[in-house]
């Protein structure tokens, strides 16, 4: 099962991605969680200890590795666009609480057409996760257009767009849905996060078709507290975990044939 969790900055992608990863690990699945967010903090939300987190260098910052695999260098304008990456997830991920964490980082680019060596590596690794690994793979990524470009994420089984009750978030959902459909991914679902009251619930229900809505996670000060403590919401808030567990049950139901592959 391959899931990309996406959405605007700060909506709660990392909270949802990390809790789903822990829930799949709790069931005994091998889980690989990949952080493609510019503010790489999935490790904290997964409950990784500081000494492991401090040792992590995002793959896109590993200049020597990128040069070695792509043969790019200051004197070489030409480089491989199909570098070997199949060993990277196992070699460079860190494991804790049954979840392997691969920190990819992002590539700063002016437009979506960038084919710099870092970007080539990023795309190839994401592709290899999607195509070759039998694990549950959960990508935590911002809803930028580049990640949704052809050649990167179209092999995902499901996109989950995390939204907050607000017009801008609804727009993001519509954009991701359109792009994903262009890429042939028809499973685009929504998790509404930080829902405060019945007014928020009605706002979401009026705008998201019921078949797209996986569920709601209510605004919960325990999630903020977990963040302040540098802990995993999974270890901190039983109420939030129960809400996300229900969402996971719906994911598994709507993706039955893919679960058989796991
Ligand atoms: N349901 C919730 N209730 C209260 N606070 C929440 C909830 N979900 C997330 N938060 C808080 O909102 C902030 C942003 O959450 P998170 O880091 O998961 O979002 P993100 O979309 O991954 O952000 P970024 O784009 O910056 O990586 C964090 O402080 C987190 O604790």
From TrEMBL:
<feature type="domain" description="CobQ/CobB/MinD/ParA nucleotide binding">
    <location>
        <begin position="4"/>
        <end position="231"/>
    </location>
</feature>
<dbReference type="InterPro" id="IPR027417">
    <property type="entry name" value="P-loop_NTPase"/>
</dbReference>
<protein>
    <submittedName>
        <fullName>AAA family ATPase</fullName>
    </submittedName>
</protein>
<dbReference type="InterPro" id="IPR014433">
    <property type="entry name" value="CooC"/>
</dbReference>
<keyword id="KW-0547">Nucleotide-binding</keyword>
<dbReference type="InterPro" id="IPR002586">
    <property type="entry name" value="CobQ/CobB/MinD/ParA_Nub-bd_dom"/>
</dbReference>
<dbReference type="InterPro" id="IPR050625">
    <property type="entry name" value="ParA/MinD_ATPase"/>
</dbReference>
<keyword id="KW-0067">ATP-binding</keyword>
<dbReference type="Pfam" id="PF01656">
    <property type="entry name" value="CbiA"/>
</dbReference>
């Amino acid at each position: 099962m391959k899931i990309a969790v996406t959405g605007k900055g700060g909506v709660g992608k990392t909270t949802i991605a990390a809790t789903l990863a822990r829930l799949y690990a709790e069931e005994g699945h091998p889980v690989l969680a990949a952080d493609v967010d510019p503010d790489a903090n999935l490790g904290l939300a997964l409950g990784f200890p500081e000494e492991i987190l401090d040792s992590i260098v995002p793959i896109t910052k590993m200049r020597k590795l990128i040069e070695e695999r792509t043969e790019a260098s200051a004197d070489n304008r030409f480089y491989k666009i199909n570098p070997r990456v199949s060993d990277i997830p196992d070699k460079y991920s860190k494991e804790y609480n049954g979840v392997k964490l691969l920190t990819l980082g992002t590539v700063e680019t002016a437009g979506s057409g960038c084919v710099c060596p870092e970007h080539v590596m990023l795309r190839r690794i994401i592709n290899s996760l999607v195509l070759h690994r039998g694990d549950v793979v959960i990508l935590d990524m911002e809803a930028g257009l580049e990640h949704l470009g052809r050649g990167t994420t179209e092999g995902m089984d499901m996109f989950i767009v995390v939204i907050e009750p607000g017009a801008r978030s609804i727009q993001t959902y519509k954009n991701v849905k359109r792009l994903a459909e262009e890429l042939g991914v028809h499973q685009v679902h929504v998790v509404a996060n930080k829902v405060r009251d019945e007014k928020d619930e009605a706002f979401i229900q009026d705008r998201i078709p019921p078949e797209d809505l996986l569920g709601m996670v209510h605004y919960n000060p325990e999630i903020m507290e977990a963040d302040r403590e540098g802990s995993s919401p999974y270890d901190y808030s039983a109420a939030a975990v129960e809400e996300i567990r229900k969402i996971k049950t719906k994911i598994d139901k709507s993706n039955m044939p893919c679960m058989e592959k796991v």
